[in-house]
Every structure is written in C-alpha cells, then in structure tokens.
Specification:
Elements lengths: L1 H17 L1 E4 L4 E3 L7 E7 L1 E8 L2 E9 L3 E2 L3 H4 L6 E4 L3 E7 H8 L4 H32 L4 H18 L1 E2 L7 E4 H11 L4 H13 L3 E7 L2 E6 L2 H15 L14 H11 L9 E5 H12 L9 H5 L7 E2 L5 E6 H18 L6
Antiparallel strand pairs: 1-8, 2-7, 3-6, 3-8, 4-5, 4-7, 9-10, 10-12, 11-12, 13-15, 14-15
Helix pairs in contact: 5-6, 5-8, 9-12
Length: about 350
C-alpha cells in the first residue's frame, strides 16, 4: 500500500508539472454540459462556478488557490453539471481522468465503493436542491422563459386565426380579447393575469395597444404581429438549444448593441451587408445622442461572441469594427424584450 501511495504521489507530481493551464480573466475552463475528461486544482487566481438560468448566467461559487473542481465527474463520467471560468487571471493544474483511473484501480474495492457512493449521494443532493431552487424561482418570477414563449405564442396564434386588419394602418390587426382568454385558459392552461400583464409590457414597447371599452371588455390591437411571431420562433429555438451551442447576449450588452443600431443608421453598408463603424465616434457622441456614455471597451464582449469583428486601429488613432447589420438589428429587439419581461416582478 505504501508503494501504491508513493506511486500515486509521483504520478500526481508528474501531472502537475505537465498539466498547468494559464487562463486570462473571463476565459472558459469548461462549459455546463461539456464532456468531462479531467479535474483541476487551482494553482493561482480564482475560478467562478457558473450555471445557466434562463438567458442569464449566475455564479454559484468562487474557488481560490488550493481548491479542486470538476472532481465529481471522475466517478460517473457524466457531463459537467456547471461551468467554470476565470474570475481573474489564473493558473490551474489539469489532472486527466485517464491517468487517475489507472491509480484508482489500485485502491481496495471497499474504498472504491465508498467513494463512489459518497459521490452519487452528492450528485443526487445537488439535483434535488436545483429542482427546489427552480420551483421557488419560477414562483417568484412573473415570466419564466417558457411562460414568455407560451403567452406570446397565444397572441401570435390568435392573430393568425382570427385577427382583423385595421384599415388605414400598416400591419395592425385587432385580436378578439375573448378568444385570447379562452385559448389561454382552456387550451394552454396559462393564467390570464399573466396574459394581461404581458400585453401591458408589449404595449409599453409599442408592439400592442390595449384599450378598456367597458363591461370587462377590451380592444386588443397587435401593431407588429410579424415581430411577435418571429420572436416566439427565435426564443423557443434558443431555449431548446444546448448551452454550448447558443449565443447569449448579457443585459449589459444591450447598450452597445443599441449604439451599433443607432449609429449604423448613419453609415453606408457595403454590398455584402457589412457595416464598418467608428467606435471612437460612438464613444464621443453617445452621451449627446443616446444620453448614455458608451465606451469603446464595452464592445469587446460582442466581438468575443462573434457578433461583431475585433477592434481595429484606423487612421488618426480611431478604432473601428465591422459587422453584419442584420445580425444586430434582428436580435437586439428580441433580447431587449426578453430582459424587459424577465425583470417584471411577480404579483405574489
């Protein structure tokens, strides 16, 4: 047994010397749902453990030098149950499972069984906690993500089924409120108070108009049925796409996206749809035109996600970026609506 322990110590020492990985602040170590092939010991810096929550990302914990992460998957080969990224510049030591499994085989059977049992219990406990937290969160939220798609899909469906065009307008249609309520309750089993509330939010964004005409009746006018239908298709696809394959726009990135849309309107697009925009000009003019300062560096995260090009130094020390205008103008209003709805407080 002494020889085995010495062998393990030697093996881990070899792995530690060869498996050091450097991470810059914000670098992803692994994503939720990734296949598991190694555990890690933090040598320097801090690593954030993250979970996707709807369209957001929350930090569950922050680990520091000397702590280990990713070890649970060693025993059951399950995908990563959470993500990990560098909170600051960091170094981690990767301990590949292939090498560790070779050492683990030398352990007594009773010890292997005990360690696997403890690991299984921890996973089950984490799963139960996650389910309880999700249920509690959905009770507190007025519009959990899938409720958003359900309610707006009802509006879109009834608009297609029995919407009446409004003469003298472009694309406006009147949707019978009674039919909306019936489908909401009887077909989709959704609460009508949430239907009323989401229409109120859509009205504030200019997509609908809801007028009280007395005796509990309402005149509901959809001003942009096409947008709502496209939104449902887009958000539903997003929600059912694997985390590792979808691009999530953070709420803080809405401002630079709004700036791109605003200033792109003054810029001539190339034949292929590319827009080259002066980021230095945006920074200098944003306070006057948008009433908010949009600094050059806030566009970096959009570039990291591939939504726009990297910053490029141009003549006169100016900084520019190039992007497809449709990529931004299509998703910006979608994400703007998502974050508006996610922030609506519950009535409970």
């Amino acid at each position: 047994m002494v020889t085995s322990r010495l062998g393990l110590k030697k093996e881990l020492s070899t792995l530690a010397n060869s498996g050091v990985k450097e991470l810059k602040k914000g670098d992803i170590l692994f994503r939720e749902g990734d296949a598991s092939d190694a555990m890690y010991v933090i040598k320097k810096g801090r690593i954030a453990i993250t979970k996707a929550k709807g369209s957001k990302e929350i930090v569950l914990a922050e680990l520091v030098a000397g702590e280990m992460l990713g070890e649970m998957a060693f025993f059951d080969d399950k995908p990563r149950s959470a993500g990990a990224k560098a909170s600051v510049d960091a170094e981690v030591i990767a301990l590949p499972f292939v090498a560790l499994h070779a050492q683990f085989k030398t352990f007594p059977e009773w010890l292997k069984a005990m360690v696997k049992t403890v690991n299984s219990h921890l996973r089950n406990a984490n799963s139960r906690i996650k389910n309880l937290e999700q249920a509690t969160t959905e009770e507190k939220e007025m519009f959990p993500p899938h409720m958003i798609t359900k309610l707006i899909a009802i509006i879109s469906l009834i608009g297609m089924k029995c919407g009446e065009p409004v003469e003298g307008t472009e694309g406006h249609m009147v949707i019978p409120y009674s039919v909306l309520r019936n489908y909401c309750i009887q077909v989709f089993g959704a609460p009508t108070n949430k239907l009323d509330k989401i229409m109120e939010v859509l009205e504030s964004k200019g997509y609908m108009q809801v007028e009280d005409i007395g005796e509990g009746k309402k005149r509901v006018t959809c001003k942009d049925h096409e947008f709502l239908t496209k939104f449902v298709d887009w958000y539903n696809k997003y929600l059912f796409t694997e985390d590792s394959k979808r691009t999530t726009v953070d709420e803080k990135e809405l401002l630079p996206m709004r700036a791109l849309v605003h200033f792109a309107a003054k810029t001539q697009a190339a034949e292929n749809g590319d827009i080259t925009i002066n980021l230095t000009e945006i920074q200098n003019e944003s306070m006057k035109e948008l009433n908010q300062l949009v600094e050059v560096f806030v566009f970096d995260s959009l570039a990291e996600k591939g939504l726009i090009g990297e910053r490029v130094s141009a003549e006169g020390g100016k900084l520019t970026t190039t992007f497809k205008l449709d990529n931004i103008t299509t998703i910006y209003p979608f994400w703007d609506l998502v974050y508006t709805l996610l922030k609506v407080p519950s009535n409970r």
